[in-house]
């Protein structure tokens, strides 16, 4: 079965018009990227290309070219097609004139022509990807063309530098800012630390952090508990709140002292 298409120049014009529409509608482009051709189905042609090829008269007939059947059969010599039933008219129009649909068997009254046209029109209405392909586009190619058009409309002096700035530093560059300042130097630093048994120790940047673990003054008395006045005002219905908090603070100090004791003998 042969179904005529619109001329190539006309399809190219329609494809360029669709491209311009997407350039002006970023949301439509987002729908195309998310859902494929179905996302822009409203922007795709509704009439099948064989209807466009048939002209205004053929396109107005809705059911397989019946509107053109009388003229086509009359132009074909006034045989039984013009005076036949509606089914014969439909077959004649599909194979000889009007829509330009022709069956491979070559018979002018082939009954398969109308069925093929109906199936093709159903597929055309159902499949948005088919309608997009008829304009010479795939979803990926159309999205790439929109991006290329946007880039051409607002060129950057140095696109690569702008891309790097937007993407931020690479993972390797972030790591290079660590010990040694580079990949080779970092490897040497790790090898040296492993040889000296220092892999469990933090890197040089952590040496800036200091914690004083000196012994408390033996002559001084341990710090007292919290002031009971604020706690009594905060919790008026809880007697002994300040005393309870003082016990908790004392236990925390004792535990901290036990944890700090083994560290006092180590060199700083």
From TrEMBL:
<feature type="compositionally biased region" description="Gly residues">
    <location>
        <begin position="55"/>
        <end position="100"/>
    </location>
</feature>
<feature type="region of interest" description="Disordered">
    <location>
        <begin position="202"/>
        <end position="233"/>
    </location>
</feature>
<feature type="region of interest" description="Disordered">
    <location>
        <begin position="42"/>
        <end position="101"/>
    </location>
</feature>
<protein>
    <submittedName>
        <fullName>Uncharacterized protein</fullName>
    </submittedName>
</protein>
